[in-house]
């Protein structure tokens, strides 16, 4: 395994070097949090695809293929559909807002009063998303070095925290672009064809597996519907995704670059399912479907190639982990801490702004590593994250973009009612039940409609300023709006 170890060590060293290089570029808040809003189509597409395709999409996607066959592609497929919908219908408007967080968008649209509460919900989502990615290091490093779970989480998490803290979004953008290339080569160009060949080709796979493994809907209609609710809609509103949209050089870059990334996700979804199906032929009695990726890599790939594919798995985990980490820190600093202190500074070149965000990334990174060590179940942690996001924030965000009559009181009621409903239903029905997201979303929608219609319409001046900002005709407006209650 010496060659494989060398590949992995060189890759990890490269991640840290890019963090150091990014530190030299991140001299302002805009540079540190959104890469100066100047990514072109190639960089934007690659980094967007990298952040949405994490460990769950790679290791989990192969595991679903092992368990259900080709229909196991649906989880990652719905992620791609969500990214396509965001890019085609909303990303241009989001990019023109020139904000840093989703909560700032809500304050602009509704005139304040929802920032801290919506920030808390978004913070919980981004924290749990970062935790799930960090837990996945244990699986990869166990295959590589037979490493203790806690040590693996600390090692992988520390590398991500280091380069994210050093250079912020510039470091993350550079590392994500490398990770995108490594994932493409490792998973699509190497592991996919090798797995199919080792399994005897598609004809042999069909001969050895039940016919339902090749049924596009074999995973079940209700499961597919739940994936759409959680992942497709989750892609539309997550801070980690929006923060990447904010990095686009123009609204055209956000629209078409995101469309390319979404299409790439669809191909990645199918590749993971096919690899998992091949693994089922080769190893029909694995203890857990999530072991399929590591097993086929360890046993079937030649020296060197194995190291590159494991680096691809690390890349998948690190890209999502770093994106969720900077989103978590941005929300904690800008939407919660600054608002609770009553301090909202204008964007500027001041180094203390960069220093403050750097400190928050470090603090949140340590919290993520500690939480990841304490938790064991990746699926449950990810489900909690997306249930809170969709149940609490989907309605007020999309309502603000699509319905003029929505009000601040309606948005606030929607966040509170939806969030409480989701938490209550997870406690009573179980974290993995479908009811929390179904009924939480319905409760959020009902609260938004009823309270909005029962309260005074949003002030005309607020709506006028919102329309100007959406149209990109108000470039002088301060990037961090002061909420009305301050």
Automatic annotation (TrEMBL):
GO terms for cellular component: plasma membrane. One of its GO terms (biological process) is carboxylic acid transport. Keywords: Cell membrane, Membrane, Transmembrane, Transmembrane helix, Transport. InterPro entries: Na/Glc_symporter_sf (IPR038377), Na/solute_symporter (IPR001734), Na/solute_symporter_CS (IPR018212), Sodium:Solute_Symporter (IPR050277). GO terms for molecular function: transmembrane transporter activity. Gene3D superfamilies: Sodium/glucose cotransporter (1.20.1730.10). It is found in: Membrane. Its main location: membrane. It is a multi-pass membrane protein. Signal peptide: none annotated. The chain crosses the membrane at residues 6-23, 44-66, 72-95, 116-140, 152-173, 180-197, 217-238, 259-283, 308-332, 359-378, 384-403, 410-431, 437-455. Belongs to the sodium:solute symporter (SSF) (TC 2.A.21) family. This is Sodium:solute symporter. It comes from Streptomyces chartreusis.
